[in-house]
């Protein structure tokens, strides 16, 4: 197993924040959500007031270069943002589950408690059902294949392309990260670039 | 036991294959890859007047030897005209195949995941020139995370070689464009030699070094001109690219312009975690060039091998690097040969094999394990050997097996006889990429898991 670059030190000097553009890739879609208290709402309730890093995960994911990577990198982003007074009140992380069956609000709440630093704006969101989830996954091009055995029983695992979205305070997508691209230093650099524009 | 193994960095096909930073040897490192038996080869095919419907088309060939339709065209989808069909590429999730036309600057986006055996046209981009601010001739369709990078060959002001690159979302929405650095506007890049011509052709990324590499060919005026006429025109022959550009991949800003005279075409970067280099070949001077990061961290270019006898103009076209970075297939259009170079020392490639495949050989694609090597013919509509009265203007798709010493033919399809046209770029498809078994064979073991 080759670990993704996000687990290691960045192997290059990144371009300085603000020295490059992050052109809009379109509007960030809305969708139905449940927060960890079980309250219903919309994804847009968590987008629009801050620069937001949105990742799609499920808590039982065991591929080291999948959801655990996303959460590891988000922890690194959290750590860097907490140290930067210019960023700390301007950034939110959202981890959005695509397994409403297992990732109930309470399960996701306990999962989030393991990673969220006190006072940091890291939200964990799920949905009430597959039907509620599907439009959001489609809108974010988050293609998921559920794994079934030969009798058609769901095995509890899923195949998917890791995607993490950088969304500005106007709810526009400004970057998309995948496994070989996702790194905390890169994301923080992009956050600084966004907030300088 | 599963016969298809698919993996990608970040693509969670569990317990099937080691995750690597690679694709089946020549495509984007951001992409899911097929490391076992591919089911289909999708061939972006240039329409020929008087051959079938005469239209450009995406031809799907079944290449799974366990299939009842092995070696047969199982689907053909015409796009309504001729566009100078040339290159194609897959999105990072491999759900869509982008195929572009050098003449009309149209891009056709095919859905290949709903039914991998029967691609369908998902979207057509017909405003590429306007959206990009004048880029003409979309060439390389290259996957970046959640988006496609499209290199151009020309521009709408003089139809010469100055050009740029564009980015689109995977859905086909325009994001941005950037022009290649020129003497007039280096955009902060360092001009390291004699040239900063602003020409474009291919692009490849080395994410671990935050590097994007681009090469340079020629503009619409030349690539749409009759080959004999162009070669007899000294002024036209001056208008070929002489540069490779090193870019900051993340910022999409040019950093260094390298002299690589003689039209450097295809770029192939090494896969090894410490292999910070790429290869290209020059069409006019018939050399292999190494683009590499030196010990001081500076990117350099140097000619490292001759391809045949340059005075006979072999005209190297497509190249294909092996997954272990040890070998490079090199096709030469003019003499119909494929040559294999040992590149285990990238600074001193040595030719170790050659075989005649057929007239006007062009593209080469190999499976991840290197055991299957596919070839197509055709260069450009106005460059192919049409004046031979058909004798040399052959159009084919061929599969050979490679055992490390010999290329053994498996099947050959005559694209003229079949009424299809001139086959160009090949891309692989597999049902297992989408968690599906092929309906027509019903093999339960085809899935990736």
Describe the structure in your own words.
The complex is a heterodimer of chains A (197) and B (449). By secondary structure, chain A is α/β, with parallel strands linked by helices. Chain A has a single domain (25-191), classed as Glutaredoxin. Chain A is 24% helix and 23% strand. Chain A is built from four helices and nine strands; from the N terminus they run βββαβαβαββββα. In chain A, the strands form three sheets. Chain A has a five-stranded mixed β-sheet with strand order 5-4-3-8-9. In chain A, strands 1-2 form a two-stranded antiparallel sheet. In chain A, β3 (51-57), α1 (67-82) and β4 form a beta-alpha-beta unit. The model of chain A has no long low-confidence stretch (mean pLDDT 92). Chain B has helices spanning 128-131, 220-223, 227-231, 234-238; strands spanning 6-7, 33-34, 40-46, 57-62, 73-78, 85-90, 96-101, 107-111, 120-125, 135-136, 141-144, 147-151, 154-155, 164-169, 174-179, 190-191, 203-206, 211-214, 243-248, 253-259, 264-269, 277-282, 287-293, 299-306, 316-321, 327-332, 337-342, 350-356, 361-366, 372-377, 396-402, 407-414, 422-429. Chain B is built from four helices and 33 strands. In chain B, the strands form nine sheets. A five-stranded mixed β-sheet of chain B has the order 16-20-19-18-17, with no helix packed on it. In chain B, strands 5-4-3-33 form a four-stranded antiparallel β-sheet, with no helix packed on it. In chain B, strands 6-7-8-9 form a four-stranded antiparallel β-sheet, with no helix packed on it. Chain B has one domain (6-443): Methylamine Dehydrogenase, Chain H. With 449 residues, chain B is mainly beta. In chain B, β19 and β20 form a beta hairpin. Mean pLDDT of chain B is 90; it is low at 1-23 and 439-449. Chain B starts with 5 loop residues before the first strand and ends in a 20-residue tail after the last strand. Chains A and B meet through β7 of A and loops of B.
């Amino acid at each position: 197993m080759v670990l993704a670059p996000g687990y290691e030190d960045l192997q290059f000097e990144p371009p300085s924040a603000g020295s490059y553009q992050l052109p809009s890739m379109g509007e960030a879609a809305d969708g139905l959500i449940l927060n960890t208290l079980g309250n219903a709402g919309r994804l847009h309730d968590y987008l629009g007031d801050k620069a937001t890093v949105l990742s799609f995960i499920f808590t039982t994911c065991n591929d080291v270069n999948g959801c655990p990577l996303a959460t590891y990198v988000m922890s690194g982003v959290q750590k860097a943002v907490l140290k930067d007074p210019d960023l700390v009140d301007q950034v939110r992380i959202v981890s959005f589950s695509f397994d409403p069956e297992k990732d109930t609000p309470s399960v996701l709440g306990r999962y989030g408690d393991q990673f969220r630093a006190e006072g940091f704006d890291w939200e964990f969101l799920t949905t009430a059902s597959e039907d509620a989830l599907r439009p959001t996954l489609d809108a974010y091009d988050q293609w998921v294949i559920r794994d079934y055995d030969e009798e058609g029983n769901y095995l509890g695992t899923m195949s998917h392309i890791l995607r993490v979205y950088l969304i500005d305070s106007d709810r526009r997508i400004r970057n998309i990260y995948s496994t070989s691209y996702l790194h905390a230093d890169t994301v923080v650099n992009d956050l600084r670039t966004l907030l300088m524009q | 036991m599963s016969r298809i193994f698919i993996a990608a960095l970040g693509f969670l096909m569990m317990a099937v294959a080691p995750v690597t930073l690679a694709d089946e040897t020549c495509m984007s490192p951001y992409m899911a890859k097929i490391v076992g038996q591919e089911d289909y080869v999708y061939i972006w095919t240039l329409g020929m007047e008087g051959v079938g419907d005469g239209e450009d088309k995406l031809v799907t060939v079944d290449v799974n030897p366990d299939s009842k339709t092995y070696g047969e065209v199982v689907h053909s989808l015409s796009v309504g005209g001729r566009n100078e069909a040339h290159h194609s590429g897959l999105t990072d999730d491999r759900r869509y195949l982008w195929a572009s036309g050098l003449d009309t600057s149209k891009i056709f986006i095919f859905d290949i995941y709903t039914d991998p055996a029967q691609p369908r046209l998902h979207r057509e981009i017909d405003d590429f020139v306007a959206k990009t601010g004048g880029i003409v001739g979309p060439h390389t369709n290259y996957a970046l995370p959640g988006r496609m990078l499209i290199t151009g060959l020309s521009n709408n002001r003089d139809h010469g070689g100055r050009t740029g690159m564009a980015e689109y979302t995977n859905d086909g929405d325009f994001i941005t464009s950037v022009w290649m650095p020129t003497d007039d506007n280096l955009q902060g890049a360092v001009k390291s030699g004699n040239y900063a011509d602003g020409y474009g052709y291919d692009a490849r990324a080395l994410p671990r070094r935050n590097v994007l590499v681009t090469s340079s060919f020629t503009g619409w005026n030349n690539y749409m001109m009759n080959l004999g006429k162009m070669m007899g025109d000294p002024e036209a022959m001056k208008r070929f690219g002489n540069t490779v550009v090193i870019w900051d991949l993340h910022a999409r800003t040019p950093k260094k312009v390298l002299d690589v005279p003689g039209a450097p075409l295809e770029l192939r970067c090494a896969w090894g975690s410490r292999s910070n280099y790429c290869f290209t070949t020059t069409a006019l001077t018939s050399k292999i060039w190494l683009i590499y990061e030196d010990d001081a961290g500076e990117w350099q270019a140097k000619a490292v091998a001759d391809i045949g006898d340059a005075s006979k103009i072999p005209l190297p076209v497509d190249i294909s690097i092996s997954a272990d970075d040890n070998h490079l297939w090199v096709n030469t259009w003019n003499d119909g040969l494929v040559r294999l170079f040992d590149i285990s020392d990238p600074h001193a490639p040595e030719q170790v094999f050659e075989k005649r495949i057929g007239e006007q050989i062009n593209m080469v694609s190999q499976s991840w394990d290197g055991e299957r090597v596919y070839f197509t013919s055709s260069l450009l509509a106005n460059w192919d050997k049409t004046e031979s009265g058909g004798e040399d203007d052959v159009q084919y798709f061929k599969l050979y097996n490679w055992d490390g010493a010999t290329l053994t033919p498996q099947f050959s399809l005559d694209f003229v006889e079949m009424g299809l046209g001139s086959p160009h770029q090949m891309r692989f498809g597999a049902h297992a990429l989408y968690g599906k078994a092929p309906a027509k064979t019903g093999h339960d073991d085809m899935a990736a898991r």
